[in-house]
Amino acid sequence: MSTHEVIGKPHQTGSFANYFKDLYTGITTTVKGMWITFRYVWGVKPVSIEYPEVREVLPERARMRLFNDVQNCISCTQCAMACPVDCIYIASEKKPEGAEIKKTSNGQPIRLTLTQFTIDTALCCYCGLCTVVCPTECLTHSHDYEFSQYTIDHMKYDYLAPDVIAWRDRIVKT
Amino acid sequence: MQSRWDIGEPEKPTINTETEQLKSELLTLNMGPQHPATHGVLRIEIWTDSEIVAHAIPHLGYLHRCMEKHAENIDYRGVIPFVDRLDYLASMSMEWTYVAAIEKLLGTEVPRRAELLRIMTAELQRIGSHLMAFGTYALDLGAFSPFLYAFEEREKILRLFEEVSGARLLYNYIWVGGVWNDWTDEQIDRVSAFCDNMEEEAKKYHELVSMNKIFIERTANVGVMSLQDCLDYGASGPVLRGAGMKWDLRKNKPYSLYNEFEFDVPVGTGEVGVIGDCWNRYIVRMKEVVQSIRIIRQVIDKLEPGSVMGKVPKIIKLPKGEIYLRHECPRGELAYHLVSEGDSKTPYRLKVKSPCFTHVSMLPRVAPGQMIADFVATVGSIDIVLGEVDR
């Protein structure tokens, strides 16, 4: 292979008439395109919104930061098993004998005491598989999407912490 | 062709220019990985002779996430969010192909409504993906406003997908046995309104970009991938159709319910430039948008209320066996080779055959002899997504 194969049409020198024809089509097609752009000056509403002054209303099913309502959690660990990236950490212990067994909002008995429920939000891929398997529907995707942190450790949320439980008033609709 | 590992000293291209007589050295130029024209994190090492590309070597792996190995440790449902991230501009098609492979091994029957909704989402996704290709290609060649118009339309599709699945790009919407959520009648009406609007928009794009003399000068006769090359390398999708071959899996090997629909397979005809050049690849995509609109309209006519989820066991365990299943995705033929050992919750092996990988491997073939600016046009015209190439 001594020379590289040059594929495509060879460069055309072009005649005098071709020169003016090219010039004509060049100008007319460009003017046509400019006219389409120019029509956007008037009468077209802007489609972009001025975040953060104006915020988009998220659809009902939007999957943002996870929230676990620990009062309804029965520590079944189904969410941790369904998670493809293993970002849910659950620990629980047996209730002592004779302890009162509370019930969740949809009537399931809480037989175990939840001692840890942590989600590494930085690892979470927001696929929604954990919320689907949840039997008491306590693990849900909230509509919070502004939660940047300075360090990656701060992205781990302990849902038993009082400040995180306080989200409940805002997120869970009764 | 020589292998990319033993290229040695590349020979200087012979171009009929005055500089040929001048003595010049080859210059190594790195394009990427942070170059806007490479559409992701692709690094192309170009050996140039003045402004002529003598040799181009794509370096892959900047977006390698070890997805195939990961899939071997996750249950079948959990892999779906991972296959989303292969081609993040056409996640619906990626999901559908994977799910169809499982369903075929499992023998699941999918309800008709779910199957129609899958076709509708896949075709909407194809429009969205082609709009992205159109917008960024115009952006590569220096036109900014088509990019904005394309994104305005694409946003409508993404909004619909967000309402129905919950996410804008990585949906996890198509599940084994059906789809996650049903579309409401109001959303279907918006789809048909979008189709009407999109037809007008497609005409506008045609006037704005396709027939523009500057655009034609930049793309016609540039980066010609001949039909023989395409067949040799195994190209598919708009690259193969742009080279003049009428090959579309939806038509030639109809899967799902595609044999019920009427649509054409657009091919590059060479009305501008020669067959197989950048312009023909581009125009195939724009014509496919119109065909997708035709399919969506037929889907809407056929839609009947019903269940969207078939009967699937709670824990999916595939019987022993393997399957190689391919679908026509916006960028070409995507295929999964799924091997199941039997009585296991995880796949034994999941091999992804990605169309973009073959298209990237064609770059060293077409690059020699091109100007650098034309090479940018060539890379843009094959419309690669690096998530799929590196996996």
3D structure, described in words:
The complex is a heterodimer of chains A (174) and B (391). Chain A is an alpha+beta fold. Chain A has helices at residues 16-38, 78-82, 129-133, 162-165, 168-171; strands at 66-68, 88-94, 112-120, 139-141, 156-158. Chain A has 2 domains: 13-45; 66-171, Alpha-Beta Plaits, CATH 3.30.70.3270. Chain A is built from 5 helices and 5 strands; from the N terminus they run H-E-H-E-E-H-E-E-H-H. The termini of chain A are far apart. With 391 residues, chain B is α+β, with helices and mostly antiparallel strands. Chain B is built from 15 helices and 8 strands. In chain B, a hairpin with a 2-residue loop joins strand 6 and strand 7 (332-340). Mean pLDDT of chain B is 85; it is low at 1-5. Classes of the chains: A alpha+beta (174), B alpha+beta (391). Chain A binds chain B through residues 1-11, 22, 25-26, 29-30, 32-33, 36-37, 40, 47, 58-63, 82-84, 125-129, 141, and chain B through 11, 13-16, 54, 74-75, 77-82, 84, 145, 152, 155, 159, 162-167, 170, 172, 181, 204, 207-209, 211-214, 221-222, 224, 226, 273-274, 277, 366, 368-369.
